[in-house]
Amino acid sequence: MKKYDAVVFDMDGVIFDSERCVFECWIEIADKYGIKDIEKNFLACTGTTMSRTREIMMEAYGADFSYDDFAHEASVIFHEKYDNGNLPIKAGVFELLDYLKEQGKKIALATSTRRQTVLYQLEQAGILKYFDEIITGDMVTKSKPDPEIYLMACEKIDVKPQNAFAIEDSYNGIRSAQAGGLRAIMVPDLLPANEEMKELSEVVLDNLNDVIIYLGTDEA
């Protein structure tokens, strides 16, 4: 069995299939208004905060781009579809959370999403109770790939970073966790693991059920 004290989760793309849902909303907006290259530019924003996402999109489309209007419209579409417990949960979430509780491990969340949204979505999904600490994008000054959010999560649960696993799906998330000294596990979502991600991650796994198997194996 692996030796560790805690697991720190990203949320979007790891616990919820939310990045795909948000992307589909942006596709609707792009089709409606003729916005080009939305897939490339949206994927560049994965794992970052709302403010950094805005910066990336403005850099991509120019000062005249009506980002705030488009983002608001995409948000309205998202909430109409996925509020009230309708946000899809990734396979293996409950099984992994139950496994960690049974093993007596601490569980934290390190997500770039706003705290109000995070608490609402976790509560609606019935998994808020599993987390010992929740660190959100509005609690830090620097967004992923900076390690601040992971270091804060470890500090809050009183675990050394090297004794914690981080489960991430995005490139910026893996960079953040690895820079903070955590043992990074990548479970890819919208983007596959490239060579950089394979190098930075301790392991790349297909799903959260595979994470349970991995954590239960002996250290090499």
Helix tally equals 10
Here the CATH topology of the largest domain equals Rossmann fold
What are the low-pLDDT stretches, counting only 5+ consecutive residues below 50?
none
Structural class: alpha/beta
Report on the structure:
The structure is a single chain. By secondary structure, this protein is an alpha/beta fold. The chain has two domains: 6-17 and 89-215, HAD superfamily/HAD-like (Rossmann fold, 3-Layer(aba) Sandwich), CATH 3.40.50; 18-82. It contains ten helices and six strands. It has helices at residues 18-33, 38-43, 50-61, 67-82, 93-102, 115-125, 148-157, 171-179, 195-200, 208-215, and strands at residues 6-9, 106-110, 133-135, 164-168, 183-186, 203-204. The chain has a six-stranded parallel beta sheet with strand order 3-2-1-4-5-6, sandwiched between helices. Helix 1 crosses helix 4.
Keywords for this structure?
220 residues; alpha/beta; Rossmann fold; 2 domains; 6-stranded parallel sheet; 10 helices; 6 strands; 10% strand; globular
Short description:
The protein has 220 residues and is an alpha/beta fold. It is built from ten helices and six strands; from the N terminus they run βαααααβαβαβαβαβα.
Question: What's the layout of helices and strands?
Answer:
Elements: E1 6-9, H1 18-33, H2 38-43, H3 50-61, H4 67-82, H5 93-102, E2 106-110, H6 115-125, E3 133-135, H7 148-157, E4 164-168, H8 171-179, E5 183-186, H9 195-200, E6 203-204, H10 208-215
Helix pairs in contact: 1-4, 5-10
